[in-house]
Specification:
Helices cover about 20% and strands about 30% of the residues. By secondary structure, the protein is an alpha/beta fold. The protein is globular, with a radius of gyration of 19 Å. Strand 13 and strand 14 form a beta hairpin. The strands form two sheets. Strands 1, 2, 3, 4, 5, 6, 7, 8, 15, 16 and 17 form an eleven-stranded mixed β-sheet that branches. A six-stranded mixed β-sheet has the order 9-10-11-12-13-14. Helix 2 packs parallel to helix 3.
């Protein structure tokens, strides 16, 4: 697909007029034990070769099925013109360093890079095999993978579509692979893994990556970022570049989705068209901010003022997940729960227009 078709093709003729967003409130800043999640809420059993990865993927699937059932009566759930988006936070898939081996871990709880494609295929089969997730889009957080042939860390997010009334010719799911190069040597980075979980302070985004955050699906132009991408205005820079190449009439994105761990929505990083929606699920929660739960943000971009206008908090509802390994993680060795902090799913109370 050429650049002009990628950006302009189908402009104004998207398959969806409304959005119903869901965001998983899950702390991911510190690596937590995988637990022993088994299928619940009707979710199928996933089969992956790594037990740690399988437990985390099974929990994601359980929460996704729970969300669809819990919110079955929300306005827009059965509407063919409403896109349902489930957004999980960055670092959803990351081993604790105590569970990783020196042969595969770059100091950040990384999996072997081959597991990225196995996970993507397993998740796609699970959601595409049922009409429950027709007209859904899943952003499955991110997976940290070590590189065997070069120094660095892959932080990969998975973007997957459920069934459609008529699927377009684009791939049904994509892996957006972000390469981060260590600022320190590998041994020093490994020693810092438990002391400082911040990816931004230990790795730098490869400057050669560009335009790989853009997806044309369902007649819309989507932008998907991880936290460090958003902080470095990756999508905004991509759209500015396309404007220079294709001309000043290049439209903004129809929808911008951000999976982060420590990044809030930044006004200069918004790349949607005027009145477009920006949605963020954050996994940031540290011992020094024990009273703060991970954030969910959603708003419309006001291009004239250059600011994001948050949706009213009265339009948003939170539902706490059932306790236990099948739906929740044991974070900070139980301290998170002892402080009364929650794990659950944010959503809007009803569908909202994609374009303001």
């Amino acid at each position: 697909m050429d650049l002009d078709t990628l950006v302009r093709g189908g402009a104004g003729r998207g398959d969806y007029s409304h959005l119903l967003p869901f965001a998983w409130m899950l702390p991911t800043y510190y690596a937590a034990p995988a637990g022993k999640a088994i299928p619940s809420c009707g979710a199928p059993l996933l089969q992956l070769p790594d037990p740690d990865l399988q437990a985390r993927a099974q929990r994601l699937l359980n929460v996704l099925y729970w969300t669809a059932q819990r919110h079955a009566n929300l306005d827009g759930m059965v509407d063919e013109q409403t896109l349902k988006v489930f957004l999980a936070p960055e670092f959803l898939f990351r081993k604790g360093t105590q569970a990783a081996t020196a042969a595969t871990d770059a100091g950040f709880g990384a999996y072997p890079e081959s597991l990225r494609h196995e996970l993507a295929g397993a998740l796609y089969s699970a959601i595409n095999g049922t009409p429950l997730f027709k007209n859904w889009l899943l952003v499955a957080g991110s997976l940290c993978a070590s590189l065997t042939q070069r120094r660095g860390l892959l932080n990969t997010t998975f973007v997957l579509r459920g069934q459609r009334a008529q699927m377009d010719a684009s791939p049904p799911y994509v892996l957006l692979e972000k390469l981060y190069r260590p600022r320190l040597d590998d041994a020093a980075a490994a020693r810092l893994a438990d002391a400082d979980q911040s990816l931004a302070s230990r790795y730098a985004l490869d400057p050669e990556q560009s335009l790989d955050n853009l997806i044309r699906w369902d007649g819309m132009m989507l932008g998907v970022e991880l936290g460090l991408d958003h902080g470095q205005q990756t999508l905004r820079n991509d759209m500015n570049y396309l404007g220079r190449v294709l001309g000043p009439e290049v439209p903004g994105l129809d929808l911008q989705l951000i999976a982060s761990c420590g990044t809030s929505i930044i006004d200069p990083s918004c790349a949607v068209k005027d009145g477009g929606l920006v949605v963020l699920a954050d996994g940031h929660h540290t011992a020094s901010q024990a009273s703060i739960e991970p954030r969910f943000q959603i708003g419309r971009y006001d291009a004239q003022r250059g600011v994001l206008v948050p949706l009213p908090s009265s339009d948003i509802v939170f539902s706490e997940l059932p306790r236990g390994d099948d739906s929740q993680i044991d974070y900070m060795r139980g301290r998170y729960a002892q402080l009364g902090r929650r794990q659950g799913v944010w959503s809007c109370k009803a569908k909202i227009p994609l374009q303001g």
